[in-house]
Amino acid sequence: MPRETKGVTIRGISLQRSVFEWLANADTQASVSALPAEQQVAHLETDVTPQLLLKRPPEYLMALTVKLRGMVAQVVFWELEATFQGDFVREADSEISEADLLQIHGPAWLYSFAREFASDVTRRANIGSGVMLPPVNFHAGPTKK
């Protein structure tokens, strides 16, 4: 069922593609375990990429891809990539400008789904209690960490 927010109707948000790979084998885990404790700190690399697929006002089709890499030292233990697609209609009298829909609101709505998905997949993969992606300020532009 479509949902309207400030003059923008969200006709649908769907997962288009996802890949999860566990890359660390027993040898990799043993080599990391041999490191001093201060070097065994896990960290997360993230790459968030929004993309406009169709711009035919008042209709807009957008995608957002999130790539994650769980690492210890410089060793990648797992990777997750997910692409969500959103179908939006912007009304002529919308409080949200076309530029803000494409650069801020659309990506933010898609990112909220990506955050939940990443948390669920990593929790099910038994990566601690799951990975919660940090908030992204889409006003600031693309994010790569």
Topology:
Layout: E1 3-5, E2 8-22, H1 26-33, E3 42-56, E4 59-72, E5 75-90, H2 98-124, E6 143-144
Antiparallel strand pairs: 1-2, 2-5, 3-4, 3-6, 4-5
Please outline what is shown here.
With 145 residues, the protein is α+β, with helices and mostly antiparallel strands.
Please characterize this protein's 3D structure.
The chain is of the alpha+beta class. It has a single domain, classed as SecB-like (Bacterial Protein-export protein SecB), CATH 3.10.420.10. Helix content is 24%, strand content 45%. It has 2 helices and 6 strands. The chain has a 6-stranded antiparallel beta sheet. It is elongated. The chain starts with a strand and ends with a strand. The model has no long low-confidence stretch (mean pLDDT 90).
Question: Which short descriptors sum up this protein?
Answer:
single chain; alpha+beta; 2 helices; 145 residues; 6 strands; six-stranded antiparallel beta sheet; Bacterial Protein-export protein SecB
